[in-house]
Amino acid sequence: MTSEEMQVELKRIRDILLATLNYHLEHYTGSIVFDQRDPAEEYYLKQIDEIENDFQKLRLDELQERWSHFKERLSRRVDLGFTNYIKQKTGYDIDIFEDLRKRVAPIIAQNKIDNVKEAQDVSNILEVYQKVSNNDGEVTTLRQLLNEYNQKFKKPTLSKSLGRIIKNLEEKHSPNHKHSIFIQHSGSGVNALTTVVISVPGGSGPIYCARGANLPIKAYWKDDSTIIIETNKNNIIDHKHEQVKSYQYIIKIEYVET
Predict the structure, then answer these.
(1) Residue 37, SS3?
(2) 69: buried, middle or exposed (CB in 10 Å: 19+, 13-18, 0-12)?
(3) Residue 71 has pLDDT above 80, yes or no
(4) Domain range enclosing 112
């Protein structure tokens, strides 16, 4: 690749990536916000800075790797709105499902799903075809493959955590059953943590986290929009949030410290 060709490709990938990140900021933020902090927004803004830095330093490989990552994310989300957006913003025709179709083709050819990853790929492409394709035969084939796999493997294989021992206590649902909380014990020794985790429509994450194993922390719902956490004021705290927002839901967190 000549110097001029590299500059053209660098600009092309950068433009696509910046538009992709702006798309994520518009469509994939606000799902779960802790106090005034939106982890997704922070991540996307940081990515924009790193993309500009890679562009300035002529790091084409890094830019291409980032693009592959975000393209795969959009593909897994079966995002059908991205193609038109990127065309309008950059002028480029992008097919985020091209790699997915290539992975599924040999699965269809062998008429068998062998593992969880293949099952997820088939499920994703099935969702795409159900929304945009008129090929009923292909949809029927994909459904049959999934049904046969699900009958054979009723329980998916779970990946092991990376050297961490994690124990989740019983979930406690909000009165309206739209949200839930549970206490999580993880790690051991000086790395032990006791965490209160919330699950809302937009995702899940820690709302309170203190250092120590099996700390006597209690968490329960006062009502649909209020959580009570009973804890020790002397705990060494890693996280302590007062509010969680997920779309139209706002949940307050009250602390009883003794």
Answers:
(1) strand
(2) exposed
(3) yes
(4) 98-152
